[in-house]
Amino acid sequence: MLRMPEPDQSTLARRKDIIAAMRDIVPNEGGVIVDEDQLRPYECDGLMAYRQLPMIVVLPENTGQVAAILKYCHTHKIRVVPRGAGTGLSGGALPMADAITISMMKFNRVLDIDWDNRAVVVQPGVTNLGITRAVEHKGFYYAPDPSSQIACSIGGNIAENSGGVHSLKYGLTTNNVLGVEMVTIEGEILRVGGKGLDQSGYDLLGVITGSEGLLGIVTEVTVRILRKPETARALLLGFNSSEEGGNCVARIIADGIIPGGLEMMDAPAIKATEDFVHAGYPLDVEALLLVELDGPKVEVDYLIERVGAIARECGAVYSRISESEDERLLFWSGRKNAFPAIGRISPDYICMDGTIPRRRLAEVLTGMQVLSQRHGLRVANVFHAGDGNLHPLIMFDANQPGELERAEAFGADILKLCVEVGGVLSGEHGIGVEKRDLMPEMFTEDDMKHQERLKLAFDEDELLNPGKVFPTLHGCGELKTLHAGEVASKFPDIPRF
């Protein structure tokens, strides 16, 4: 079971004083939440298996307030948990009983649209889709599009380096963020990057993107926007096996074709989604590819024919091409609603996130079915096939004794399988608490030490988002004393964070 750092009793004893200090810093109405009922919405993020009421929730409205809060927390050694929209799936915003949760959802304004430089400056509480909405009237859009884009914030996207269905061609968040303003735990305000495409010196922007709130709190974001393609069309391709679908994915990429989106669903996911959305998906296939091609019309028409030919060579038994924009959006509505569709047929589910080499896709899908039988739980697969980013949905019933534990073990085995075939633990959901204790499966001791030293350079007292990313027996603080392995062997019963 999940273990988090023990609450600091001295901090809890000072709760009234901390509340008073927060109200001085954020005097606006509703800026400091302390009532238990009002704290309840903040007790978890999208990973709802674990819940913990935060000590206090603070909703600052400007960078100065964020800086003052963090400076106070640094001076008084109070832990801090940054939070965006709370849609994350790895427990990255899981609160702590002795920590201040800082919600950034009042930072919700678009600050500047620079059409000439194709850049938009926004606050971190602006939703992913909100950026596109702000620029679409002039034919622009923001490319990364997680399935939760109507709700997830751009600040949360930066924390987890979110992707989406179009990340194969247009990249993840890190490929589309140009600059950030960030506040350190000491209350120092830093600016990294800007509207320019290339920055000199160390790639600090790359370090910050995907850092899961462990290094600082982002208060402003500059992103790249793109021209909407002249044409976009989608194909639905059905196969009698996941192996054939996986081979088709590899063939498309090997042919030099980079689709705007290349998604795959297996039979359980197809059925659940079609019952929910009625997108016109075939129900008599074992695997369904959703391929989107965009660009000039003449290019798209040619690539449609080329992809269709490849699919036939790979054994496709179903093919349908979108004939209108509404039909293309209908195809995608099924894929974007796959997660809630699974929620209709299972009391609970865990959405995993691992990435593998495309050539090992069929092997991993077969391995998942073996694991499904071993753990006695169903799994549906929905994933970004083009870049090998898997999202297995493990179905279980938390009301049945032992099923949550079996689901966790199943998910861990899937991630271990991903690493075993040359993949990684996360593609876009982050590590959080969900995969924290699996980090040694992927990283060597030296790798972990380098990551820990980077954390300590920004946050020596480990006040920012503790209990996340680093394994429980591999805490950063041990670098200040003894080698983690030495400590663990001498004191095996002591939990460390």
What do these coordinates show?
The strands form 5 sheets. A 7-stranded antiparallel beta sheet has the order 15-12-14-13-18-20-16, with helices on both faces. A 5-stranded antiparallel beta sheet has the order 5-6-10-8-9. A 4-stranded mixed beta sheet has the order 1-2-4-3, covered by helices on one side. A hairpin with a 4-residue loop joins strand 5 and strand 6 (119-122). The model is unreliable at 481-497 (pLDDT under 50). Helix 9 crosses helix 11. With 497 residues, it is an alpha+beta fold. The chain contains 18 helices and 20 strands. The two termini are 15 Å apart. The protein has 5 domains: 9-103, Uridine Diphospho-n-acetylenolpyruvylglucosamine Reductase, domain 2 (2-Layer Sandwich); 110-227, Uridine Diphospho-n-acetylenolpyruvylglucosamine Reductase, domain 3; 231-338, Alpha-Beta Plaits, CATH 3.30.70; 346-434, Alpha-Beta Plaits, CATH 3.30.70; 447-490, no CATH class.
